[in-house]
Amino acid sequence: MSSWEKWLNRPQTVWLRRALFQIHLWTGIGVGLYVLLMSVSGTVLIYRRQLAKTFSHEQRIAPGPGAPMTVDELKQVAKRYYPEYEVTRVYERKNPDQPVEILLARGEKRLQRLFNPYTGADLGDPLQPGFRFILWLADLHDNLLHGKAGLRWNAGGAIFTILLCLTDAMIWWPGIRSWRSSLTVSWKENRKGLNWALHSALGFWSLAFIVMWGTSGLYLSIPESFNAAVDFLEPVQESSKTTRLGDQVLFWLSRLHFGRFAGLPVEIIWTIFGLAPAVLFVTGTLMWWKRVLRPWVRKKIIDEAETQPTGNSLRA
Fold this sequence. Notes:
single chain; alpha+beta; 12 helices; 4 strands
């Protein structure tokens, strides 16, 4: 039987598949937590606009009987509350029921506060905790909270994610006789191998989405490299008024990443497949435990038991 025939009928016996499986397994363990983090945070950020709108309601105040304070008076009030800070700007509002926003600074540290222009009361942070959490989550997803360095780490994570997808596409093939059954999960027939069946079927159906997210995430992490490639393949022509094909591809890569281009139906689809990498991480970790870690733990326990002296040898 040739190698091709083995691959078609019994791929588990082909050494290349076994090697790719090990690459897939250990790469998944290595970047699994990263994939889990990107999966969950990215799924939440699909609804960033709705969440930001929900958590961005501004406070309202009751207008006082007299005239509101002047800018200089408000600066003095803010200085009394925060003597270590300097007032950098005062934003007055047109409506009498809106508080005044004051920006303060101390070195590189910045502070934003709302004040009642009639009583001088400090009304707190203009950004609600929920809104700040969304900003923090976006910063975590975009650059891992580390600015430009985080962007480079995200680029590496995206490359390893694409590698996971490529190896998955190679090792998914179960053989010509059983490939159809590997597209679904039978809860009754696959009780013993349920974890593998779920991982295999979900990996197949979500493969295109994860490749798209890996590629678009790589672009958003190092856009200058992609732009340079487009400029090389399609040099800018000042006389041309049409948008280059490469620019259109990059534009759609950024839009596809979060699925905010066709309303709620697409957002729901992106949510379902956006959580698929998290499920794949859990099922992959269970396989790693079953195939690698648990046998190693058992062997270690047996080896330690064999090296310990018996009760007879101690008495002797």
